[in-house]
Specification:
Elements (H helix, E strand, L loop, with lengths): L12 E5 L2 E5 L15 E6 L2 E7 L21 H4 L10 H11 L21 H6 L2 H6 L2 E5 L7 E7 L10 E5 L26 H14 L10 H11 L2 E8 L3 E2 L9 H5 L41 H18 L2 E4 L5 H4 L3 E4 L1 H4 L13 E2 L15 E6 L5 E4 L5 H4 L8 E2 L21 H11 L6 H11 L3
Antiparallel strand pairs: 1-2, 3-4, 4-8, 5-7, 6-13, 8-9, 10-11, 12-15, 13-14
The structure holds heme C (2 copies).
The site of one heme C has 24 residues, from helix 10, helix 12 and helix 13.
């Protein structure tokens, strides 16, 4: 048989890893072939392999999650492909662009920099898809709330589009996985205002996705919405193999998506501010996967053992290295303490996951003008009452609440499966976990040494 004629499906590589046979989907395979019925899909990434698992018998590719529900050809899976840990990365979007000459449905509507710009030629398409190709970012558009506390006084948009009625917030999709552990839905939490259940927030999210991403004009049926929620809430993702440290889902480590399935979680669990509904005290040791590796002899010449030591040190830094958390709107003001002595796990406090079980939205400064890169729009907002101005690349939940104090606030995301999500933070701030350690080190004057930064990086990449 001519190799070129072999259907895509048969070119899938089969990897037998840790006793489980799983499929590795090579880059050329996209939605054109329906993958075989499996409850596990593994995906290689830059530092190892992630695993996405459903608690259903198998991933059901006939679910409406995979069907166009609006007026364009997009489905939920366009931006949340199972083969990528329910996420898109810039590596994936760039590859998809090159394979389809920019004609894949991901490159339309909110998948372009300027919705009014020419897309008729390959070069025009390339020029108008900078954010999605280079950072995997989608243009989430909002009007400035008319009844809000601020006005938009200046727009510096490199793509010449944003205006008062439709300001461009370039945001990374969040994975439609590990959803059991999210106290609030979307980067800015707008789909889950206080009092709305996770189920109702996800239902609202599906309807919004049909009207926005899919340019639909008719809301999906209640049955379709339920089927999608039922599908996505059964999915778990994490890294299972690290190129430096080796297997991560061995019984004594307990990492891997299977361990997430039965993990104890309830809203308010293990929060650092005394608000646990059952009254349990906060334990900063939210991750303890690698305790066994701490006792590896430091003088070992074995390269893998050395790397494992670094991962174990990183885990310890994450949960025990103390510093002062200051100036975080949405945290310091909410708990009434200008200085909170804490660790990374003060905010990333959900045990085994690293989200926060409180629906807090915080401004850590990622959207500040000082961190703006030239590809990002910059907005100047003016307080109607005081006349004060602030510059930001994304006003966050303030675009929904209209409140001045909410500018730049975002949620504390899950950290599991993070290697499938590069670049990180709501705006693809950096594709290198090392830069994140750098960011926190300078933001909170932690005083991390280069070795500690490298250890934190090694640890986060195993999640
Ligand atoms: C064009 C790309 C695109 C499509 C299509 C799309 N999404 Fe998303 N999704 C995103 C982006 C971008 C975000 C984050 C937006 C934000 O926070 O403002 C997101 C966020 C989410 C979240 C929130 C997760 C969390 O942690 O808060 C869920 C759940 C989700 N999408 C599910 C879906 C479902 C279900 C569909 C189909 C009905 C869908 N998405 C279609 C891009 C997309
Ligand atoms: C004050 C609370 C707070 C503290 C302390 C904190 N984080 Fe975060 N973290 C956040 C928030 C909020 C975000 C999302 C910010 C955004 O995108 O605007 C985030 C995002 C991240 C991300 C990116 C996740 C993704 O999906 O892209 C990583 C990684 C991370 N934090 C690691 C750390 C580490 C390591 C430390 C300790 C050095 C730490 N965090 C300390 C609140 C905190």
């Amino acid at each position: 048989m001519n190799a070129n004629r072999i259907p895509h499906l048969f070119t899938l590589g089969v990897l037998s890893l840790l006793g489980t046979t799983v499929l590795l989907r090579p880059s050329s395979v996209k939605s054109q072939a329906t993958p075989p019925a499996l409850n596990v899909v593994d995906a290689p990434n830059s530092t190892g392999i992630s695993r996405t698992r459903t608690t259903a018998a198998a991933f059901d590719y006939t679910n409406p999650f995979f069907k166009p529900l609006g007026s364009n050809a997009r489905s939920c899976a366009t931006c949340h492909p199972v083969s990528q840990g329910m996420m898109i990365t810039s590596e994936y979007t760039e590859r998809t662009f090159n394979e389809t000459d920019g004609l894949d449905p991901i490159f339309l509507a909110d998948g372009v920099d300027n919705p009014n710009a020419d897309m008729s030629t390959l070069e025009a398409r390339r020029a108008n898809t900078v954010m999605i190709r280079t950072k995997g970012l989608i243009r989430v558009g909002f009007p400035i709330p008319a009844a809000g506390e601020f006005t938009l006084v200046a727009v510096d948009d490199p793509y010449g589009y944003a205006n008062t009625n439709d300001i461009s917030c370039f945001r990374r999709p969040l994975p439609s996985s590990n959803l059991r552990f999210i106290p609030t839905v979307m980067w800015d939490g707008r789909e889950r205002p206080a009092g709305r259940s996770l189920h109702d927030a996800l239902a609202s999210q599906v309807r919004s996705a049909v009207f926005t991403h899919m340019q639909g004009t008719v809301a999906p049926s209640a049955e379709t919405v339920e089927k999608i929620i039922n599908f996505e809430t059964k999915i778990f993702t994490s890294q299972i193999y690290d190129n430096g440290a080796g297997a991560l889902n061995t019984p004594n480590i307990g990492a891997g998506p299977s361990a997430l399935i039965d993990l104890i979680y309830y809203p308010t669990i293990n929060n650092a501010f005394g608000l646990d509904i059952f009254g349990y005290r906060f334990d900063p040791i939210v991750f303890s996967f690698f305790i066994d590796w701490r006792s590896i002899h430091p003088n070992t010449t074995n390269v893998q053992k050395q790397y494992r030591l670094s991962v174990a040190r990183g885990e310890k830094i994450f949960t025990t290295k103390r510093f002062f958390i200051t100036g975080v709107a949405g945290l310091n003001d909410v708990v009434g303490k200008a200085k909170i002595k804490g660790t990374c796990s003060t905010c990333h406090s959900t045990p085994g996951v690293g989200s926060n079980s409180l629906p807090y939205l915080m401004n850590t400064g990622i959207a500040d003008a000082s961190r703006r890169t030239p590809d990002m729009p910059l907005y100047t907002l003016k307080n109607k009452r005081t006349g004060a101005t602030v510059q930001t690349t994304d006003p966050g939940i303030a675009l929904t609440s209209g409140k001045w104090k909410d500018i730049g606030k975002f949620k504390v995301p899950n950290l599991r499966g993070i290697e499938t999500q590069s670049p990180y933070m709501h705006n693809g701030f950096s594709g290198d976990v090392g830069d994140i350690a750098e960011f926190y080190d300078s933001r909170f004057s932690i005083g991390l040494t280069d070795q500690e930064k490298a250890d934190l990086k090694a640890f986060i990449q195993t999640l």
